[in-house]
């Protein structure tokens, strides 16, 4: 007589999986193994299929709304990164050109040459370009920050919440925020600089916080965002920034 | 006639977002059901549905038209569910401690279940929650969905022997936890 079934073989037998081959004959012949299989079946039969909740008729369109919203956000983020690269490249080019102009700048010659006006115009034009670039990227930055904060404040703090996506976005936003804040300060864009300054500690708290927040942690951060009126401020300034930057952009489609 | 999944995939690859909307609307319910059975929680299942579609969109270029879109999408969803289970260990700990347990088990009021009462339901939920993500997924697929072991291996990306061992471990753990409630010996 062959050996009794192992526990693993009982599992295969219970689920009628292939692979037992001739061992099935043993099961048919061995009362002890049949009893053991019945014992296993008694337990496993208790584990009945989980009842899936009924979904309402709009479920599909709600899923699409959320998925498409996130895809748009991702595409926007990619666009923002492109702008950031462009801005960085433009700034380097401007600094390089500026350096060349300063090196060649000899007071007596400049004062006596007609090209002095051209240099002034060029300097003023590059200044405007830098301002425009700053406004465009800051507008997108405000938009992204607002979306992330809205998502966070809409979460219900009644159980632990996974905020890893928001945390990741806050980390990215924090890096850009620092750059934009110092640029805005140096360009004298006080309103923009002040809001970026207010936004920074909140982004820092989210970026350095846990990816899984307890209801208390979530409540605290939501309260902080709400008490500062950050979402509202971002919305207002974003609209202002857009209104200022768009006409310039229309004049300069290559930027 | 409605376009097939593969036709829609091709249209998505060509940049047609409307085609992706059709795919989302066509498959979101079945993905939700699978995700719910693995996560045992409607909110988590919802997150899995969303994440699975996002991942599928990003990976659309790598979809091999020889496979069915449904299988491919379910595989992505199951991986999302496993990732989510990993990232929710803290809450799983709470589940182990006895919270939200009823979510993981059927509420079917069969005569057996009534006799076993809430104590058995609690034990099943606790035992399920103590399984690892892979064990729970493999068990759910085999036990609830009737998916053969070989196919489970394809979904989880594991070899047949490893898949068998995962299911064996899951069954062993469940038996150890539940045997006392059925009155028979392990």
Number of strands of chain B: 0
Radius of gyration of chain B, CA atoms, in whole angstroms? 18 Å
Q: Which blocks of ≥5 consecutive residues of chain A have pLDDT under 50?
A: 108-112, 248-255
The DSSP helix count of chain A reads 10
Average pLDDT metric of chain A: 79
Number of helices of chain B: 9
Largest interface chains and counts: A-B, 38 and 55 residues
Q: Sketch the major β-sheet of chain A.
A: 2 strands, antiparallel
List keywords for this structure.
heterodimer; A: 255 residues; mainly alpha; two-stranded antiparallel sheet; 10 helices; 77% helix; 2% strand; elongated; B: 186 residues; 0% strand
Molecular structure report:
The complex is a heterodimer of chains A (255) and B (186). In chain A, 77% of the residues lie in helices and 2% in strands. With 255 residues, chain A is mainly α. In chain A, α4 runs antiparallel to α6 (115-153) and α8 crosses α10 (230-251). The radius of gyration of chain A is 32 Å and the shape is elongated. The relative contact order of chain A is 0.08. Residues 108-112 and 248-255 of chain A have low confidence and may be disordered. In chain B, 75% of the residues lie in helices and 0% in strands. Chain B contains nine helices and no strands. The model of chain B is unreliable at 98-109 (pLDDT under 50). Chains A and B meet through α1, α3 and α4 of A and α2, α3, α5, α6 and α7 of B.
């Amino acid at each position: 007589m062959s050996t009794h079934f192992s526990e693993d073989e009982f599992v295969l037998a219970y689920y009628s999986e292939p692979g037992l081959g001739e061992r099935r004959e043993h099961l048919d012949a061995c009362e002890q193994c049949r009893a053991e299989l019945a014992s296993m079946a008694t337990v496993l039969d208790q584990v009945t299929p989980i009842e899936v909740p009924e979904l309402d008729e709009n479920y599909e369109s709600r899923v699409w709304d959320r998925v498409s919203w996130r895809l748009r956000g991702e595409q926007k983020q990619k666009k923002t990164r492109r702008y950031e690269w462009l801005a960085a490249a433009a700034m380097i080019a401007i600094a390089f050109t500026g350096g060349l102009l300063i090196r060649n700048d000899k007071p007596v010659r400049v004062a006596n040459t007609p090209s002095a006006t051209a240099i002034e115009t060029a300097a003023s034009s590059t200044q405007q370009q830098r301002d425009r670039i700053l406004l465009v990227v800051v507008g997108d930055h405000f938009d992204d920050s607002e979306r992330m904060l809205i998502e966070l404040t809409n979460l219900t703090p009644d159980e632990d919440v996974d905020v890893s996506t928001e945390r990741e976005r806050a980390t990215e936003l924090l890096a850009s925020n620092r750059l934009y804040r110092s640029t805005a300060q140096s360009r004298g864009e006080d309103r923009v600089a002040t809001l970026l300054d207010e936004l920074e500690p909140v982004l820092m708290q989210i970026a350095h916080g846990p990816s899984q927040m307890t209801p208390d942690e979530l409540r605290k951060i939501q309260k902080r965002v709400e008490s500062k009126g950050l979402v509202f401020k971002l919305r207002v300034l974003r609209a202002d920034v857009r209104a200022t930057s768009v006409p310039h952009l229309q004049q300069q489609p290559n930027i | 006639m409605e376009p097939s999944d593969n036709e829609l995939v091709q249209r998505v690859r060509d940049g047609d977002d409307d085609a992706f909307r059709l795919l989302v609307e066509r498959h979101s319910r079945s993905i939700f059901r699978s995700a719910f059975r693995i996560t045992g929680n409607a909110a988590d299942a919802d997150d899995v549905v969303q994440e699975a579609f996002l991942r599928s969109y990003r990976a659309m270029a790598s979809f091999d038209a020889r496979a069915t879109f449904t299988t491919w999408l379910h595989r992505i969803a199951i991986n999302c569910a496993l990732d989510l289970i990993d990232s929710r260990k803290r809450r799983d700990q709470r589940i182990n401690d006895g919270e939200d347990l009823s979510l993981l088990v059927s509420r079917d009021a069969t005569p057996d279940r009534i006799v076993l009462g809430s104590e058995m339901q609690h034990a099943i939920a606790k035992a399920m929650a103590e399984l690892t993500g892979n064990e729970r997924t493999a068990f759910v697929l085999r036990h609830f969905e009737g998916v053969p072991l070989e196919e489970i291996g394809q979904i989880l990306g594991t070899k047949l022997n490893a898949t068998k061992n995962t299911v064996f471990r899951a069954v062993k753990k469940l038996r150890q936890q539940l045997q006392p409630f059925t009155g028979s010996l392990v």
